[in-house]
Design brief:
By secondary structure, this protein is α+β, with helices and mostly antiparallel strands. The chain has one domain: Arc Repressor Mutant, subunit A (Orthogonal Bundle). The chain has a three-stranded antiparallel beta sheet.
Length: 102
């Protein structure tokens, strides 16, 4: 699940800048129940791997927030994740549905 969640976070950050709590809410909109406590360590790890970077910016409401952006390395990692996901989702669906490959 960890690798899948990282890929989902990269996908969402690739669409627009986002801050941690907002990211948690967006993932919930897709049906992924992920606590903020799970998201922040992943964001830190993705920053260490240089897939994303954070930047403090003024917020339309309230205090400044740290917004996350995708880096060039993050774009490559997202492409790799999508390829890996495509390679696993069909076989897993077959397995779960009891359908052998024809």
């Amino acid at each position: 699940m960890k690798g899948i969640l990282e890929g989902c976070i990269l996908a969402e950050v690739s669409r627009q800048k986002v801050y941690g709590y907002e990211l948690s809410m967006k993932l919930q909109e897709y049906g992924l129940e992920v606590s903020e406590g799970s998201i922040y360590p992943i964001l830190l790890r993705l920053q260490k791997e240089k897939y994303i970077y954070g930047k403090m910016e003024k917020s339309a409401s309230g205090p400044n927030r740290k917004y996350y952006y995708l880096t060039a390395q993050g774009k490559e990692a997202l492409v790799d994740f999508k390829k890996q996901w495509e390679g696993i989702k069909i076989p897993v669906d077959r397995l779960l549905n009891g359908k052998e490959q024809s």
